[in-house]
Amino acid sequence: KRLSQIMRILMLLQVVGFFLYSLFFTISMRSRVYDEIRQALEMYNTELSTNLKSVDYYLVEINNYNTDISTLSGTDNPQEHYGSISGINRLFDTNLRSFPNILGLYCYFPNNGTWVENQKSSFENDGFSGYLRNSLSNTKPSVLSSKTSTKWILYPYQNKNYFVNFFVLNKSIVGAWTDTDTLSSALTRLQDQGADILFVNKQGRPLTVSSSDPLNIPVSKTLEHYAVLHYQGRRYMAVSVSLTYCDYFITAMIPLSQVDMPILSLGRILIFLLLCTVLLFWLVNRLLSQFIKESIDPLVSVTKSLADGNMDSRINTSDRSEERR
Predict the structure, then answer these.
(1) Which residue has the higher pLDDT, 201 or 279?
(2) Cα dist. 29→22, 222, 225, 294, 300 in Å?
(3) Cα–Cα distance, 134 to 157 (Å, whole number)
(4) CA angle, 177 then 180 then 186, to 5°
(5) Cα separation of 123 and 78, whole Å?
């Protein structure tokens, strides 16, 4: 009986040990994945901000020093300066290839309505350049001047989100545009791991999620550590980083089942080992109980016979070693 109690205690200790080890492994694994995601997002923000800053420097420089832009900004009859328009277009065509994160470059002259653009061929039919032109033409130059900054501004268009910057100098406006798909393309490694990349505003609302299926990101929490979110019946690990080039955040949401996959594999192994241990304990306990019972039963029988007065009772043994016991 005491042996059985000892085995039960050992089994209980093993179960507690397995549980504590699984908990420690879960916390360690999630922390490691969190560190990798945060490092990837911070590196992305640093590199992309540097690339977009070079676009800003380029736009400021040509707006200040390009003679074709100066010529068109000072005329009321742009048809007389077709060479300047062609020169700006060729300049954009040459330099656009140097900016992989940019979809198009533009130059707009509000005083005469001239618009010069150059965009990557794969995006020529998306219609956004026309929308941007109409938007700028319907905005007062004084309002545009007040918006000029190093921060890129969001322009939603046809279920897509574009970021635009512009620099106003005298009577000319130069700028560039891109979209969230292009900006997030540098995070393909996270996307290959099953992560969803979202641009999130200060209220925690993603730009790419429809209003019919609301999702709110606890930005303050995900900036400091990861948060576990429930969305569409699944659990996600969410990590956010503040973006330098715009007033938004980028959030990576990876399914928690993807993160916990090694943990689940370890859990299956631990459960298998636990079942094997329980079976082993039961088998050992059974064999020991049977051995002790077979050894004691003849002695108990003879003892009862002696107590009844039968002094000729003997223990039947098959060899001398058992009789000595």
Answers:
(1) 201
(2) 10, 18, 14, 52, 59
(3) 13
(4) 105
(5) 27
Residue with tokens 């109409």: 134
255, containing H or E segment: strand 249-255
Radius of gyration for the chain, computed over Cα atoms and rounded to the nearest angstrom: 38
Residue 117 tokens read as 């653009």
pLDDT in tens, 154-169: 999 988 899 998 888 7
Secondary structure letter of residue 99 according to DSSP? -
CB under 8 A, 24+ apart: contacts of 87-92: 88/116, 89/116, 89/117, 89/118, 91/62, 91/66, 92/116, 92/117, 92/118
Q: Which amino acid is at 254?
A: I
**Digit-coded pLDDT (tens) for 48-61:** 999 999 999 999 89
Q: Round to whole Å and give the CA distance between 287 and 295.
A: 12
pTM of the predicted model as reported, rounded to 2 decimal places: 0.71
Q: Give whole-number Cα distances, 221 to 89, 204, 208, 227, 252, in Å.
A: 46, 11, 21, 7, 13
**DSSP one-letter code for 101:** T
pLDDT tier, 323 (very low <50, low <70, confident <90, very high otherwise): very low
User: Three-state SS for 325?
Assistant: coil
3-class DSSP string for 237-284: EEEEEECCCECCEEEEEEEHHHHCHHHHHHHHHHHHHHHHHHHHHHHH
Average pLDDT over residues 31-54: 91
Q: How far apart are CA 168 and CA 64, in angstroms?
A: 10
How many Å apart are CA 269 and CA 100, to the nearest integer?
A: 47
The percentage of residues in the chain with a pLDDT greater than 70, rounded to a whole number, is 70
Give the type of residue at 79. Answer: Q
Q: Which of 106-110, 137-141, 177-181 has the lowest mean pLDDT?
A: 137-141
Q: Which two tokens stand for residue 84?
A: 């300047």
The continuous run of DSSP H or E covering 39 comes out as: helix 2-65
The structure tokens listed for 87 are: 């020169």
225: exposed, middle or buried (C-beta count within 10 Å: 0-12, 13-18, 19+)?
exposed
